Fold each of these.
Amino acid sequence: MKKPNYLIIGGTGKTGRKVVNSLELLNQNVRVGSRSASIPFDWNQSATYGPVLEGMDRVYITYQPDLAVPGAFDAVSELVSIAKSKGVSKLVLLSGKGEVEAERCEQVIMESGLDYTIVRANWFSQNFSENFLLEPVVQGVVALPMAEMKVPYVDTDDIADVVVECLLHEEHNKKIYQLTGNERFTFPEVCELISSATGREIKFIPVTLEEYVQVMKTMDLPEIYAWLIEYLFSHVLTNPDNEIITQDIEMVLKRPAKSFRNYVKLTAASGVWNQAVHLEN
Ligand SMILES: NC(=O)c1ccc[n+]([C@@H]2O[C@H](COP(=O)([O-])OP(=O)(O)OC[C@H]3O[C@@H](n4cnc5c(N)ncnc54)[C@H](OP(=O)(O)O)[C@@H]3O)[C@@H](O)[C@H]2O)c1
């Protein structure tokens, strides 16, 4: 039987690059979908959807910046319709746990008539090292709202491993997996963990959502990112469902979810949180 061809959208991103690595180690045929790939793919230009889907059998979909933003539903709908016309057989969608807006996009995948798996992830551990929370940690001052929220952060290694399983094996068809870590932490607790692992003081300052949004508006951020961060804090983190710890990682991978404490140790050892200190030296 012919080996399937895999398209990994966002294949150089936080989860996508790990999915690409694992599939390549398994000697699978992999194509990266991104603006800088050899066949450029841009969510904002639907004319790029057809060429990248040509000849593909199974597709991992990560939408940038987030399935909740205006325009995501139309873009995902168009991609799915072109994927069908090109003979794609299976879709695996990365979605956000507790994100009601993202569920509209999930519906498009579930009603496509193709095989599918929905992978709903909680907040990534790597938001502190590869995303918008890296800079405050490097600067040593983390000012955030919702100080009391307890988040079961999920490691992108686990998300990628689950996605690879779903892409490879039929038993995951028509399933919705909800991925979380196995321990919950508030933002002040995260700062304490990072402080003790790096040996630097990472100060936590509680602010209101209004204060946080005001500060973001003074920064040079694209409008959609400021909107998205406000949405994530006001609608997603406040969703009580997001405090619930699930066992789906262990169910799919037959091993426990990776620990957030260990993520902090490994990331501290990588030096990424000491960038400023290194620059001064
Ligand atoms: N962060 C969280 O805590 C969290 C939690 C749950 C769900 N999610 C979901 O995760 C998804 C993002 O996945 P991720 O974090 O793995 O990816 P990511 O790291 O945010 O994405 C970066 C990748 O996307 C590509 N990219 C960026 N803009 C693009 C565009 N306009 N068109 C095509 N490709 C583009 C980049 O390559 P180029 O620069 O070459 O284009 C790169 O390959 C979002 O939909 C979000 O809702 C995130």
Amino acid sequence: MHIGEQEWRQLRALPGAADASAGSADFHKDLYHRLADREPDEGARREAADFLRAKLMELQSEPAHLPASPSDLLAWMEENTRNVHARYAAYLQDRKAGAPRRYFSNRAHALYVLRGVAPTKLVDGAWLYGLLPHWRNPRLADLVRTYVEELGEGAVDKNHVVLYRKLLASHALDPLDDLDDALYEQGLIQLALAWNAQAFLPEVVGFNLGYEQLPLHLLITSYELNELGLDPYYFTLHVTVDNADTGHARRACQAVMDMLPRLDDGGAFWQRVHAGAKLASAGLGTSDVIKGFDIGREALRILARKATTGQGAHSEYCRIAGRGINDWLAAPEQMPGFVTALEQAGWIRFGEPAEASRFWRLLQGERAEMFGVSSTYELQVLHDWMRGAASADGRPFTEAAPTGGTPKRRATFRAGVRGRGVPAEAAGDPLDPDLTLLREQMRTADDGTRTALLLRAMSPAQHWTPAGLEATRVFWGELTSLPARVPCAA
Ligand SMILES: [Fe+2]
């Protein structure tokens, strides 16, 4: 639970961040934002392509876990699905027999993972974006359809990125600016493919094949989030859309077979599909983020972050172990010592209910002097950190500690929703400057410009906004020869 200053410095060293080939310590994060926040310029696209080439070289000797021949793809996919289902059945059996949760040691752990995988989830589907301009090519039809489904066909309650944004917001898990650079690598790969599809078509097809197969962690994550009273919908949705019968997993196999050259290329395209599939598991995935959780480290990181803003805000009357609070907060490296001093002074009582700690009562509760200083996520981490092993009950910090007797069994998320219903989306047109602009531009555009406007609004940078959602509905309506659900020209 206690971390020394030297260890603290080591822990602050980011996994993978010192990648010499990538240049700066925040290489992945910086390029990710240049590709995700707006339409990237030529320079950013070129850098992304260089990054992909370097990554593909790096992964050359790694196994691709694909069958040797494309003709075995369907059997390979079905075998993977059977295997995952069997392992999930064994997991459920274990749980039924009384085994503890396998992934999330407490509520803070689950929230930490939802934050950690956010850079990837917030660009969900991006790897297919570059195929959109080729939507008339029948060989790409399945992949274009998969992309539009990732976008929820423009429905706000089905767009995967919107769903994840709502999940983050509902638990105050943003902002994400303090996440390690390594957590941006997988999302960066997806964005780099999005903006360079022309040069990396076989890799895009291979990435999609690798990424759309059902992983065991999706099933267990859904189960344990629900158990902790956290909304698992984003994850359960992927269990259903990636299904092996008609879903993205099967379509990904079909897409490879559709795209393989009819002319003899000596197996070059298939080899590049293999290389692309390896990209799907590059970087830190969900399982890595789950394993990487250390509540003591996360609590210290949060306290160190607070120290930067709180330093100087305390009066000289506040003293711990003979030193003023401002002095303790002067350098983040002093946090482990500060925590030890707080514990020795009896301000933090590890292994007891958080409410027993004076430090906790400063942060939370009636007339708490530091009320509002920490987000709900940060409070949950500090709460579970102080409680130690007892936090395995998954209790939210907002819920009063049970007083004597056997604690009540927690309602799952689904049971809670059944009880109170789901609030409806606000009706009416969303107020959004891009939406107004898109409608104006569409009104006067000729056919070619109109398509370009729609495709632009459906990029990873925009598809989750009101303008992007409307563009998706119009595009999909026209593509499937159905009237658009919401006309663009009002
Ligand atoms: Fe998705």
